[in-house]
Structures are given as structure tokens and as C-alpha cells.
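Run log, item B.
One chain of 380 residues. Sequence copied directly from the ordering sheet:
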Amino acid sequence: HSALVPNVGAQVSGSRGVSQLGLPVTTTQQVGIQAQWEIDLVGANRAVSRAAQANVEGSQAQWHDARVSVAAEVANLYYSLSTCTRQLALAQRDAASRQETARLTEINAKAGFLAPSVGAMARASAADGNSRVTQQTAQCALGTKALVALTAIAEPSLKQKLALAHVKPAHGASISIASVPAHTIAQRPDVFSAERDVMVASAQVGAAVAQRLPRLSLNGSIAGTRLTSNGVDLEGTTWSFGPLAISLPLFDGGQRAAAVRSAEANYQAVVSTYRAKVRHAVREVEEALINLDSTQARAIDARVASDGYAQTLSATQTRFSQGLASLVELEDARRNALASESALLALDLERSQVWVALYRALGGGFEPQSVTHTAQAASS
């Protein structure tokens, strides 16, 4: 905004010497103020000021966009780590079940009630269960490392926080979102920043056009002077008002006209980018709503499947302990139960991540008014 107001400066000077032959030594002391003001006759400086204001607001919106991105990424890693922990507990239960089956099978095989190949199959199943536990433990450790890197929290402190406030399993949402108001899209930081880029480009067009129009400037100064020579002091005040100058570009080889065309082309490009941002924002919101509805619909079937396979596994284990079911049947039932419960955990994770995606698609609580007020307060 400084280009819209006069520019004032102060000057203090002193000198001593002989300025002409035959004259005595003279001491000169001067204190003065100079002012210069380019009167914004055609709005060139106002256009630059508006562009700068929009640029500041757009930069602040980009900071909010980065904040939302970090928050969403932390939430996704947190949910992923929670699901990994639950998957690890499932793998440990499955490994313990396989180990117990292998122990009982080994006893029966040594007693001659089962073929050695059945005992070998049971040992292989137990080893496979232990391998899953090892793999899942490593994945959870990697998830913890990733969360440490993203949050900058020391690993011991992070583990303590996770242990004290572990996330609860995801459940169906208590609310239903079928549509989102169109004006909500404008609250996204990236859309707001793109909108400010359009304002900047528009102001740049105005500034380029203003360079082809007359410019009006005004100068002035006032100074107090004291001269000392041969013991005689002379004091006085000097001042000037002007010149009041008007400058008009006549010929520049088409440079200013080319600058206008360049600014207009840049404006069209920025508008296209803004439209693409809006379309992308609408797409992200709609995709999040579709995925949210999908996870809600699949949750019931996934729960029925998991309960059914769990009951089948329990019945097969009972029959196997009584010698009424083969190990192959037991392993098949265990595999189905493990897969269905893992799928249920994965669906819980997907539902949580969809809510995070919707939070991010809607701007993550960004309020454009706060950016505008902050930028105006900073410039005042």
C-alpha cells in the first residue's frame, strides 16, 4: 500500500570549505525534508496494491492447505497403525490356534491315530501362522516409524501417547451426508488460493494497461539552512513545491502493448487453472461421498460374513477335536475366518480413511474470512 501514499525522507548535512576564490571559509549546515508522491491518476498503483493483497491471502491459504494435508496424513497413519495393531492381535490369536492344533496333531500322529503327513501339515500351518505374526509386527513397527517422522514426536513419547489413547474401532457414522452445498467448495484452501491467483492476474492486466496511460507525480521539499563565515551567521528556510509532472508514453516499439497481451494471456491461463481446481475439488468431494456410502453398505455384509465364518471355524474345531473332521477342513475353515475378519478390519480402516478424505476435500475447517482479516490487519 506504500505506493498509494507520499514518500517522505529527511536529510541532515554539513560542510566547511571555500567554494570560490577570494571568499572566506564558510560552514554550511542544513536540515531538510523531501517528499515525493505519484498521484494514482489511472489506478495503476491501486491495481498493484490489490494484487499484493490477493497474493498475501493466497499464500496464507496455501499454508492452511499444507496444514490440512499434514493433519489428514497423520490421521491416516494413525488409523493405519491402529488397524495394524488389531491385525497383529488377530494374527497372534490365529498363530496360537494353529500351534495348539499342531501340538494335538503331533500327539495323535505319534500314537498312530493320524498319518505323519497330517502332522507335517499341522506343523507347516503353525509355521505359517508364526510367519504372519512376524510380518505383521514388522508392518506395525514401520507404521510407528512413519508416524514418528511425520509428527516429530520422539518414539517413546509417541508410543506412550498411543497406549494411553488408542483409537476405537470404526463404526457406522451417526450422520448421513448425501450432498454438500456448492459454496462449501470455495472454503477449500487450494480453491481459495487459486481464486486469489485470478485476482492477482486480473490486477496485473490492469497494471499493464495503466503503463500505457499518463502518469502524474508531485515533488516538494523544505529545508532549514545556516551559513557561518567570518563570524557572521545567516539562517533561513528554503522550500520548493513541484514540479507537478505529467508523463505520457508516446513510442516504445510496442513493449507496453506486448506487456498487456502477455498479462491477458496469463489471466486466461490462471482462470483455466482455477476452473480445473474447482472441478478437481468437486470430484474429490463426490468420490468421498460415494466411498462413504459404499463402506456403509458393505459393513453389514462384512459383519455377517465374519460372524458366519467364525461360527464355522468354531464348529469345525469341535468336530476336529472329536475326530469327525479332517485337518484339511479345519485349515480351510480357519483360512476363511481369518480372511473375513481381516477384511472387516480393512473395511473399518477404509471407512476411517474415507472420513479423513471427506474432511480434506471440504477444506479441513479452513475459514477464508480469517485469512482476509489477517492479511488486512497485517497491512494496516
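Observations after the first pass:
- Strands lie at 7-17, 26-39, 215-229, 232-247.
- Residues 44-110 form the longest helix (67 residues).
Flagged for discussion on Thursday.
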